[in-house]
Amino acid sequence: MSEIGRIKKPVEEEMAQFEAYFGRTMQSNIPLLKIILNYIFRRKGKQMRPLLVFLSAKLNGEIGEPTYVAATLIELLHTASLVHDDVVDDATERRGALSINALWNSKIAVLVGDYMLSKGLLVSIEKNRVEMLEIVSEAVKSMAEGELLQLQKSRKLNIKEDDYFRIISRKTAALISACTACGARSTTSNPDTIQIMKEFESVGIAFQIRDDILDYDGNGLTGKISGNDIKEKKITLPLIHALEKTSIVRKKNILKIIGNGKKSRSDIEEVISFVTEYGGIKYATLKMNQYRDKALAILDTYPESEVRSSLRDFVYYTVSRDK
After folding, report:
1. For position 74, which CATH number holds?
2. Total structural domains within the chain
3. pLDDT tens, 273-299?
């Protein structure tokens, strides 16, 4: 059994039922939309975010239809954000397959993303889960703010460590927080419990830092292309730390490479070597583990159970995965 398979074990049955539940939601009478939704559904990833919803729900109570509604809201939001991100980034691939904007076009991709967001609104209203809609709407707002902040800072290549954490807190962490908060809200109305699960967003921050480390330390063995962030002019924590530790002259030289529209393989390798030399990977790993420990501390407030163990495994998987 894979690591994800072991993590899913306490909610394996519910996750299987969710697949059918979500499939029924992803239906339309519009022929083109039907084809695209089917394409998206067949290429779903590991469903880590719905998994977090179900584990968070079971940690705090008994899973019922509200949990399926919560997971559906999250999956619609997440999928819509990926479709929109591919348009923003002009990406032609997603999970090893052609993106929606590459197969059709950007206009269609934006409309499909909008459709999925509106579908989430309708599901929450139809099922009378306005409190979950509030949590998810806050996440959508936060993710948009984070994306705009990143675009603003990236243009000037002046992202500082504080900026970096503001960006990933609004993007990756906001969605993780929505997963765990909605999961908890589906089984309890206790505001303190819901707030505690919102703070589990620290695992989202750790997840993003790990993603950024892999771009500099993938060793060519992962599914992610080493140096991809450098090609896309993305300044992440390993590079930010290295830039803060070097001389003004070296900093200008590295930023010049980053700012170039076209970069050779030797340019990318120079930046990777620079980041390694100035302890960027080591520093980012240290910060990642601090956020990992914050997430584990939250779980330690719960009694021992199979679900708690799975969530602990989820946290460790987040910081040890190789893609």
Report:
1. 1.10.600.10
2. 1
3. 999 999 999 999 999 999 999 999 999
